[in-house]
Amino acid sequence: MKSSAAHIAAIILAAGRSSRMMGTNKLLEKFSDESLIRIAVETTIKSGASPIFVVVGYKSERIIAEIADLDVQCVTNPDFAKGLSTSLQAGLRALPEEVDGAIVMLGDMPLVTPTVLQKLMDAFRATPECLAVVPSYREKWGNPVLLARSLFHAASELTGDSGARKLLEMHRDQVVEVIVSDDAVTIDLDTPEAFSAVRNR
């Protein structure tokens, strides 16, 4: 059973091909003078989650070089082209046995703050029976999410581009929502237009 001492790790998904970004790897694009992937990693480090695993795949050498000085471990997903589920699974396999839960962080959400991650962890530790914690903005679930170890096996059976959302929908009565006051948890940068719009805010 989880407690106030629950051990929470983090997985940052950074293996995708950025297929809608017109040939560029969005995670290496600059946002407020830093690349998206560095922002994601630094945010996660500041949250206190540990250890942190960054799942890489597409142009992995460049992603690894971009964060080489930061206190994270990189996990290569050779099957990244098969969809998001394979990257989630690669990250989960890397977690130590003593981990009770893991934040699943997307690499392209630069407006998410360490405080949001800390609120997810606080809610997880305060609710021993929950299977997951999600941020909610105006009744809309966002990212990142925090998964309990008891969901890891089910996540290993996902396929294609199915992420954790499918599992959360199946277990809604055991998902804790953390209400947040801004839309950062609902914004990811999948297109050049989305990137420009958020960068110009």
Show the helix and strand layout.
Blueprint: E1 8-14, E2 30-31, E3 34-35, H1 36-47, E4 52-56, H2 60-66, E5 73-76, H3 84-94, E6 101-106, H4 114-126, E7 132-137, E8 140-141, E9 145-148, H5 152-155, H6 164-170, E10 175-179, H7 192-199
Parallel strand pairs: 1-4, 1-6, 4-5, 7-10
Antiparallel strand pairs: 2-3, 6-9, 7-8, 7-9
Keywords:
eight-stranded mixed β-sheet, Spore Coat Polysaccharide Biosynthesis Protein SpsA, Chain A, alpha/beta
Molecular structure report:
The protein is of the alpha/beta class and 201 residues long. The protein has one domain (8-199): Spore Coat Polysaccharide Biosynthesis Protein SpsA, Chain A (Alpha-Beta Complex). Helices cover 31% and strands 21% of the residues. It contains seven helices and ten strands. Strands 1, 4, 5, 6, 7, 8, 9 and 10 form an eight-stranded mixed beta sheet that branches. Strands 2-3 form a two-stranded antiparallel ribbon.
- N-end to C-end Cα span: 43 Å
CATH fold naming: Spore Coat Polysaccharide Biosynthesis Protein SpsA, Chain A
Kindly state the percentage of residues in helix.
25-40%
**The top level CATH class name:** Alpha Beta
Spatial extent as radius of gyration: 16 Å
Q: Please tell me what the overall shape is.
A: globular
Beta fraction: 15-25%
The helix-strand sequence is EEEHEHEHEHEEEHHEH
Give a short account of the largest sheet: 8 strands, mixed
Domains (count): 1
- Quaternary assembly: single chain
Classified in CATH, the superfamily is Spore Coat Polysaccharide Biosynthesis Protein SpsA, Chain A
Low-pLDDT runs of 5+ residues are: none
CATH architecture: Alpha-Beta Complex
Q: For the residues shown, what is the average pLDDT?
A: 91
The number of helices is 7
